[in-house]
Amino acid sequence: MKNVVIYIHGKGGNSKEVEYYKKFFNDEYKIIGFDYKSEFPRDAKIEFSIFFDTITRNYDDIYLIANSLGAYYSMLSLSDKKIKKAMFISPIVDMEKLILNMMNLTNVSEEELYNKKEIATSFGETLSWEYLSYVRDNPLVWDVPTDILYAENDNITSLETMTDFVDKTNSRLTIMKNGVHYFHTEEQMNFLDNWFKKYIFE
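The chain above was modelled as a monomer; its predicted structure follows.
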């Protein structure tokens, strides 16, 4: 049996992050990082699907590891694929709510965004009416067996939003107390390691 593990990074990340996860798998698994280029959901849906179909055609069991925005794009693009198990770290599970929260922070109304089409924010993100409209027209549908690692102090996704998503999908939630969205400290990575080892093959 030949198995493959695909790692999909979050915004600002890269495929080299896959190296961290190789320690969890033996030689029966091919470990591949995906350096996607898409910045818009419609483009991601095409790019992710083509990559996935090209890579996985010769493998039996397919495992998916995805981080933050990469998890959102994965769910948007790969819901109909044959995935044995997904492991998501700080996934974005409600993009519409995230965009509306950013609009609220910058006092941008839907009417204003509709009229201007794009509005730059002070925190480096560009609000886009086209992006928001696409997200609304393409809600997530996800039934892959999934374990989610969520940080108690995640400033991107609220616990309520994450819990709602878990309740509606084939997912299981683990919460790290005092953790933040970006897992990177020694304490956070030790927690991630224990979580990953416990659930990856369960």
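The chain has a mean pLDDT of 96.
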